[in-house]
Amino acid sequence: MRKKQPTIHEVAARAGVGLGTVSRVLNNHPAVRPETRARVLRAMEELGYTPNPHARRIAGGRSYTVSVLLPFVATEFYRRLIEGLEGVLLEKRYDLALFPILSQARLKRYLESSTLAYLTDGLILASYDLTEHFEEGRLPTDRPVVLVDAKNPRYDSVYLDNFLGGRLAGAYLARLPGAIFAIKVEEEPDRAFRHTVFAERMAGFLEALKEAGRPFPEDHLYVTRLSQEGGRLALRHFLEKASPPLSVFAGADQVALGVLEEAQRLGLTPGKDVRVLGFDGHPFTEEVGLSTIAQPVEAMGARAAQLLLERMQGYAGAPREVRFEPTLVERTSTLTPGPAPYVP
Description:
This protein is α/β, with parallel strands linked by helices. Helices cover 39% and strands 17% of the residues.
């Protein structure tokens, strides 16, 4: 009798990790720690596990793999998004194959219909709508496609109302005294894309300021990369334009964290001298006291995965749009500290 081949579940159990971690090792995901990767590979060797991505397709007409095309993998947003996707897809025993778009060269490679990205059971496009690169705005695949953190009328889409988030930020900071500044994030790989969620956030922000009658000079906007260093540089630039108190809307929590760090380095008090408002609602914002416009990233990922599963199971209805709304979370970075308690 032929010996039964070990499964990915047995590998996960032997290595003491989750199915998602084994999947990331198989797909050479850069976010896996070296020691974890070594433990998983050792478990595969001990069990005699050999990944065969085509076997299940041949046997049952499916690969039980979903491709995810995304701009980055080593950011908090995409870590949370993948967690939301995996939470749903792994329950149905689907693995994720990640295809990060890090450059124009990779983008061109992924636009070829023969690439592995299009040979899985379904595709999820994160943040960027690649359909603009194809005739008639359709991807070169007959597999189901879902967009998350983006939208397209031809495909199911799950997205955050970033314009509304910008409006929430603008209306909130407009009520505070002092000059208002903003940081716009540019994160397109080699400027390969014309549109990002950050542009929507800034448009909503500026509209809210205009409605509130708050002026916003052009030099109060600082454009930078998605990094803490960008936030630090932005605050230095702002302090050349105005003296404290001032308010800063950062286009992303990671950038806002840099603003906070630079304010503290300069001896300025967050919430009093410099008010900082981020965007994303990442878990670390609570620890550092950062006010933020929060988005339910994991829930967005889970909903996108559900829509894709429905398509892969035969749903053939019209494209669906699922819109999520952001919420304002106030913390000490925008709240003026109260007086010190009296000590007799």
